[in-house]
Amino acid sequence: MLSDEQKIDMLYKYKKNKDKLSTKQIERIMSWVNDKNAMVRYEVAECLIQENPANMKVLIRLGKDRDENVRIRAYTTLSSYSTKEAEVFLKKAMRKDEV
Fold this sequence. Notes:
This protein is mainly α. It has helices spanning 4-16, 23-30, 38-47, 53-62, 68-78, 84-98. The longest helix is centred in the C-terminal third of the chain and has 15 residues, at 84-98. The mean pLDDT is 92.
């Protein structure tokens, strides 16, 4: 079992090549979406820049995270997605956070 520091170090390495992550690397990243450490979840959101339905589903989940920084990172990553679903989610999130 990896420590939080090991996970974060691995995520930093993944971020350097986030446009070319393998399926196995993405699966590992996604396995940490519910990690108890907010910094791990934050880094997960940053690594999921490759636009695909599975990544988007995880980012939407992180966009509802209890930690504000994780939510903001998920919003930022989702903003690079060109899907209608991402756009609708971000519009709803902005309205909710305005309150």
